[in-house]
Design goal:
It is built from 10 helices and 7 strands. By secondary structure, the protein is an alpha/beta fold. Strand 1, helix 1 and strand 2 form a beta-alpha-beta unit. Helix 1 packs across helix 8 and helix 4 packs parallel to helix 6.
């Protein structure tokens, strides 16, 4: 017996049978293409079937195999059908699930945020991830190996003013992921939660975001945002290592540490920024 031998755990993102929601654009599309580069087969799910099909074309160009499926993640039965269709296409349960579908809402203070904005944001950003976990996790647990990546945001702990609905939805995803990681400890299933600040995507192209807030976010993306491709690579590598939290940018790490070191001071600082911006 070679006592010096050390067998590294398999890298989940290599030749994965992966399901990606919100794969029609942004980070979801970047995940799908990167998985294809790693030799994977990818089910590209999106509420927009045209965009899902476009992503499959990019997956094939990158050397992978792809299947496009139209799926509204706010509908539990559609998510269940997605899991069943993926399993049928793979010939086995998915080995990696990425709950990425999300929308951006912001610009109004709490008390002036329309109920429809709360409902839409929580339906997609939180319930979409809950359904993805409730439906795919038992299959991953039974498989005894695999990975799940939930896309949250630095908003999950940043608590920026005028983003109440979005903050709450992403805080739920963070808490859900941390709970899930504890529950899946020792099962062979790795859980990762992605918490970026600004990524250069089309998430602000949403009528639910107040115009001035959308312009500010667009400018911040332009000057401080990182590419969705780099975020996808870092997150897949982190899941391979069994890493729970991924904060891909320096500003996200600073916010994370600041909030935890001096939470009251952090909140007062946000309040000062809000008063200045009024």
């Amino acid at each position: 017996m070679d006592i010096l031998r050390w067998d590294r755990p398999p890298r989940l993102s290599r030749r994965a049978n992966a399901v990606v929601t919100g794969a029609g654009s942004g980070i979801g599309r970047a995940f799908a293409v990167e998985l294809a580069r790693r030799g994977g087969r990818v089910v590209c799910a999106d509420i927009d079937p045209v965009r899902a099909k476009e992503t499959v074309g990019l997956v094939v160009q990158a050397g992978g195999e792809g299947l496009d499926i139209a799926c509204d993640v706010t509908d539990e039965e559609q998510v269940r059908e997605l899991a069943d269709s993926a399993e049928k296409w793979f010939g086995a349960a998915a080995s990696l699930v990425i709950n990425n579908a999300g929308i951006g809402i912001g610009g109004n203070v709490i008390g002036a945020t329309p109920k429809r904005d709360w409902e839409a944001t929580l339906s997609v950003n939180l319930w979409g991830v809950i359904y993805g976990c409730e439906i795919f996790v038992p299959r991953l647990r039974a498989k005894g190996s695999g990975g799940i990546i939930n896309v949250a945001s630095a908003a999950s702990f940043g608590a920026a003013p005028r983003m109440g609905a979005y903050n709450v939805s992403k805080a739920g995803v963070l808490s859900l992921s941390e709970t899930l990681a504890a529950e899946l400890s020792g099962t062979g299933v790795a859980v990762t939660v992605l918490c970026p600040t600004f990524v250069k995507t089309n998430i602000v192209d949403n009528p639910g975001i107040e115009e001035s807030a959308a312009k500010l976010a667009t400018n911040l993306m332009k000057w401080t945002g990182v590419s969705e491709e780099s975020v996808a690579r870092k997150t897949l590598d982190a899941n391979d290592r069994g890493q729970l939290h991924v904060l891909p940018q320096v500003d996200a790490k600073i916010l994370w540490l600041f909030k935890r070191a001096v939470p009251a001071t952090y909140t007062r600082a946000l309040g000062l920024v809000e008063r200045i911006a009024r």
